[in-house]
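Risk register update: the risk of archive-format incompatibility is retired. Evidence:
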Amino acid sequence: MLKKIYRKFAELIRPFRWRIEILTKTIFSLCLYSMVLKFPKLARKLAPIKPMALQDSGKSVLFVSYYAPPYKSSYGTQRVTKFTKYLRKIGWQVTFLTTQPARNYEIDSKGEAFVDGINVCHVPGIVDHPLMRKGILPPDDFVIWAPTAVTGIKNIIQATPIDVIVATAPPYTNMLAAAVCSVRSGIPLVTDFRDPWTKIDTYWIIKNTFSKYISKFLEAKVLKVSSRVVMTDEKFYYSDFFPENLSGIKEKVVSITNGFDEADFLNIPFGEAQEKSTKSFIFSYVGGLYSEENAQAILNVLIEWARHYPDDMKNVIFEYAGSDGKLLKDATNIGINYLDHGYVSHVIANQIRDRCSVQIFAQPTEFKAHVLSGKIFEMIRNPKPILALTRQDGAVARLLKETNTGITFTAKDTVAAAQLLKMWYDLWRQSGHIKYEAVQTAVAQYSREHLTVKLSDVLEEVCRKT
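Archived output:
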């Protein structure tokens, strides 16, 4: 009788077995790691990780990131790749814990790889599961990877001298695993927030109320464990990034934005000669469009220009590179020559920006003021003016004003933006180029090499305090 009941029960739960298994593992891991973060001294005593003895150099860092080359740059790989490149240049020993892409569409075969001398340790990643992209699992869908990451970090710090750990997010599971190992080993942790955690309002949103509570708890504990906290936006926007009720956190925070790598521009022939040889007025948009509404904001500017000056259109080319070209397909109805290159490598992206006369940048109206897209930094390095459709009180507008690299309009300023495009077009017709002088000293502050020196200073400070 009991066997029949058991078989019947097994049949009933079979369709849900994977969900139950995931939830069970998640609950167990979160309970265990929450206790480690809540009682760090006890965790260090009961479950210590004995790190390998440090060397005299005092400059050995472990990076933790689920994503790294050869994943596409859209997964946040470029920031850590550039950091490790220039940390190696200034004498740091770099070890990197990451996974490998399981699907072809995740790979950028032409993307930038790690430089020589970096010890890259791969651990197994996760496979898609029924709860992915449901907004249920805290801190994110990668939480089932946490035990694998913890084991990988543990193995590294037991076999390799590590002075400091850097964990970047999202996914926030990177930080959870690194924080657990930091507590158990005594190695200081620096957390690098490319996006807010519980305050995020895009892709990584947690929808379940109880899961939100767990995420807030984990975020608070990880921030407390962190010796230093890096945010990719200006510290001016601290309250948009972190909960304000956490005492002692703001003092730990330092701003290190994204930037551009001067090396990426060395082989691109900038200058008037190239522009004069171009027979068409080219403007470009490179990168994700985020939403149909954002794409329409760009099209509305072009429609306004074409409505008043239809004859200009025969000399105009609109080049797009990214995954959302279908959102701009109506550009052909305006009479503009529209070229959709699809997703391209980083090198090709810079070449497309280089051959244009004007760069277009746009953000959805619902984006918060602090949001700085990574591509904006490569745009300010390119000596072509930027027409930006974004909020006037936002970080992008502040950056363009600081560097004098472009002009900002809101999505509703269609007429004014179209008039500026027309003015720039007329300048191009007259002289073959648009003269627009950037403040080079301001632009230089956003080079990847300069920004990595800032990170190195943070890491050295943390190491000295331990």
